[in-house]
Design a protein that fits this description.
The chain is an alpha/beta fold and 260 residues long. It has one domain: TIM Barrel, CATH 3.20.20.70. The chain contains 10 helices and 8 strands. Strand 3, helix 3 and strand 4 form a beta-alpha-beta unit. Helix 5 crosses helix 7 and helix 7 runs parallel beside helix 8. The longest helix is centred in the C-terminal third of the chain and has 18 residues. The relative contact order is 0.16. The structure holds 1,3-dihydroxyacetonephosphate. 1,3-dihydroxyacetonephosphate binds next to strand 8.
């Protein structure tokens, strides 16, 4: 890790319903009060659970973020929730361009740019997710794909001068899509992640020259037994965890291990 702060972000995807989310958020809010200020823990619940989770986190050191936003502020957009609405409901961050949005819901690089702009305009920080698929990796296109995703995402935004850009490097082939227990064949070597983080920082410096140091989180099958391997790499500023963040004991172990 190069930054003083460690970012531990929990993407709950569609794993927990509203009741389960609120229950876990209450426990994590209480736990967050014992954490040092050097750690930033943020949960990204489903849109249905968002308000209950934000209420549970209020007054604690637990941050709350949106998994996805729409860029228009309000209007006839059935099924969507705008960045401005999330901000008013208590969100500080929003994931943009998660691989599941890109690959399952066909979100384009152009859409990620509109979302990044809307999130910044609403006064939140976008967590720009980038990463290559297994076939892109096999074809030797990893850097090319990630660079194109970054260039598009930051192409129109006017970056707020004091905010560190946050990027999540999530190789699509290393995402577990499961229970958090099985990582067979999905392990991205920390050294491979580190190489990409270094590359991403270089590109983002080039794209946002006036911005403070970019922070790159690693995501993809992070587990209690692997989190410190990633965090010990100099350009890994934190982690974005899916399945293993949805079980209270495993997420608390990840936080405790990250602080060692
Ligand atoms: P897993 O930790 O379940 O592999 O998910 C990673 C991810 O996509 C986080 O955004």
């Amino acid at each position: 890790m190069s930054t003083a702060k460690i970012y531990l972000f929990a993407n709950w995807k569609m794993y927990l319903d509203a009741t389960e989310s609120e229950r876990m958020a209450k426990q994590l809010a209480a736990y967050s009060k014992r954490l040092p200020t050097a750690v930033e823990t943020v949960i990204f619940p489903s849109s249905l659970a968002f308000q209950g989770v934000a209420k549970a986190a209020k007054g604690s050191r637990l941050g709350v973020g949106a998994q996805n936003v729409y860029w228009v502020e309000k209007g006839g957009y059935t099924g969507e929730i705008s960045a401005a609405m999330y901000k008013r409901a208590g969100a500080r961050y929003a994931l943009v361009g998660h691989s599941e949005r890109r690959h399952l819901f066909h979100e384009s690089n152009h859409e990620t740019a509109q979302k990044v702009e809307a999130v910044v305009e609403a006064g939140m920080l976008p967590v720009v997710c980038v990463g290559e698929t297994a076939s892109e990796r096999a074809a030797g296109q990893t850097e090319e794909v990630v660079e194109a995703q970054l260039r598009a995402a930051y192409s129109t935004v006017v970056w707020p001068l004091k905010k560190n850009p946050i990027i999540a490097y999530e190789p699509v082939w290393a995402i577990s899509h499961g229970t958090g227990k099985d990582q067979a064949g999905k392990y991205c070597e920390p050294a491979e992640a580190e190489k990409m983080h270094h590359f991403i920082i270089k590109i983002v410096h080039d794209l946002l020259p006036a911005a403070p140091e970019p922070v790159v989180l690693y995501g993809g099958s992070v587990r209690p037994d692997t989190v410190t391997d990633y965090l010990s790499e100099p350009n890994v500023g934190g982690v974005l965890v899916g399945a293993a963040s949805t079980v209270l004991s495993s997420w608390k172990t990840i936080i405790a291990d990250a602080l060692k």
